Amino acid sequence: MSTSAAERPTGPAVRTVLGDLDPADLGVCDAHDHLFLRSPRLAGQELDDVAAAAAELAAFRSAGGASVIQWTPYGMGRRAAELPRLARESGVRIVAATGLHQAVHYAPEVLERVRADLAGVFVGELTEGIGRTGVRAGMIKVAGGFHGLDRHARYTMAAAAEAQHATGAAIGVHLELGTGAPAVLDLLCGELGVAPDRVILGHLNRSPDGVVHRMAAEAGAYLAFDGPSQTHHATDWRLPDALAALTEAGFGDRILLGGDTTTAGARSVNGGPGMPFLLRHHRERLEIALGPALVTQFLTTNPARAFAADWARPAPTVQTS
Ligand SMILES: [Zn+2]
């Protein structure tokens, strides 16, 4: 059920699966995670169990969590129809995504289906709803490559920029192993005219290059630090130092935190860190390094600003060809 017209925010709002939300009500936010995810690259580890998703949300809620941004894009098993009930029953706000991941995550026929009008698909999912569910996406997820952008990435980002201009939605970017931020910002903000504060760079912790972190923050983008994960164990432990360096340089208002649970085995209900880890040991560790006020800012006011969009503005006509 959508928020009624009377209580719909008139300014910028976060578009959740239950309707548009005053950003001030977002609360403690896991800014990059997944309840549902399916990819040929993660065969046998799909996140597709609704009961497990509900249990994960309940665990996150009891750890003090209030909202989750699911970065699962088009064609990767988002289960949009399940999200409103999960949000209602758990009391956790959920934001869904449109967008497109790297080509390796799709069967060729899935990409073929959307190729002719990708921006139109994104805008439709942000404004009308995903498929026939009526559940609207609240962000656009795209992906770069290892230190560069292939044709698919450039095409996807051009469509994302077009949808961003039409809707105001934020663009969240999967950086492959945390690399390629300069190329992504050159393309999205330099060539395609997206305002830097509408770009959220994900996985930067996987490449603990403090110079690139600072360049991205200086450019005005948001930096979403996520994990932990077994795959990225080699770099995850550098996170407190990376955040300390950014905040000391004056960029505490650019930082977001997420869990990025991508496999069934990583869910807390299956013995992994899952969503609640962010608010238990992870938060505690970061508070020791940075103090509680900053960590609270990373978990509340920063995501409220990053994901809020001015949905109500008259949308320009989307050029689709
Ligand atoms: Zn992710």
Automatic annotation (TrEMBL):
Cofactor(s) needed for function: a divalent metal cation
Keywords: Hydrolase, Metal-binding
Residue numbers bearing the N6-carboxylysine modification: K141
Coiled coil region boundaries: none
Binding site for Zn(2+) 2: K141, H174, H203
A Pfam family per the record: PTE
Annotated Zn(2+) 1 binding sites: H32, H34, K141, D260
PROSITE patterns to which the protein is assigned, alphabetical: PHOSPHOTRIESTERASE_2
GO function term, MF aspect, one: hydrolase activity
InterPro entries: Metal_Hydrolase (IPR032466), Phosphotriesterase (IPR001559)
Details of cofactor binding: Binds 2 divalent metal cations per subunit.
UniProt similarity note: Belongs to the metallo-dependent hydrolases superfamily. Phosphotriesterase family.
Cited PANTHER family: PHOSPHOTRIESTERASE-RELATED, PHOSPHOTRIESTERASE-RELATED PROTEIN
This protein's name: Phosphotriesterase
